[in-house]
Amino acid sequence: MSFVGIDVGGTKCHGVRVDEHGLVLEEIRYPTPHASELVDLLEAMFHELSGTQSLGVGVPGLITPDGIVRASPNMKGAHNIAVGPELRSRLGINVHVENDATMAAFGEWQAGAARGAMNAVIVTLGTGIGGGIVMGGQLQRGANGFAGEIGHMVVQHDGEQCVCGRRGCWERYASGSALRFLSGGMSGEEVFAAADAGDSHAQSVVAKFADWVAVGLASLTNICDPEVIVIGGGVVQSFSSVLDSVAKSFSSALYSSDSRPHPALRTAALGERAGAIGCALFLSLG
Ligand SMILES: [Zn+2]
Questions:
Q1: Domain 115-268 has CATH 1.25.40.10
Q2: What would the pLDDT profile of 52-106 be if each residue is shown by its tens digit?
Q3: Do 3-104+273-284 and 115-268 share a fold?
Q4: Are 8 and 50 in contact (CB under 8 A)?
């Protein structure tokens, strides 16, 4: 038995066929097209990978439970595209479309670093910050399917301008692109490399970044009380050296820190495959 999932990213669409444990059997990648050609590409990718009767798709942005992409800030022309209904009608199979970060969280929960957890927060630190929340053994999707937009949690009232049009969102301070802002123009990789080489400016940027990451994780823990927090995304490759600083700041930012068990902080296990694997497994598990 195998399952197909396609993760639509800002630059590429990543399709996988996996077995029931999430092991990748086949994978393909195509450049992300203009939104008007997205459904055609997804249909073709499904046929290329097929052998199954269902398809999971992850798309960045606000996705309705029916699979309509309401808005996708990083994809040109993506406004009210009926990805789910259109694919169901063309392919005649069960198709589920979900926010990409939610799907990546689902992948880490089912087949990665949060496997087996009843309560988990999965955080993706990339260009922005995405995530997913598992409580009581259920992935939380909210009343409209829009739950888990943790990057737009405001951590600084009237703070830095965010791409969402509001100010002070967590992703302005703790994402990969926030490192550029905190460092005054260096990329995340450059900042981490310079900090490792002993550059004191870079080290202070990394310390500040770790504080901002920790502040958000502590708020999420105060709200969700997870047993594990998984941190993934592009920043993570250089992240292991920062995890200790994050853990220390996290401890002091947590409510009633001395009187409670702390969640385990883990780096993600599936890397850039988390989204596509999550998409594939989503329908396999009903
Ligand atoms: Zn925002």
A1: no
A2: 888 999 998 889 999 999 877 667 777 889 999 999 999 999 999 999 999 999 9
A3: yes
A4: no
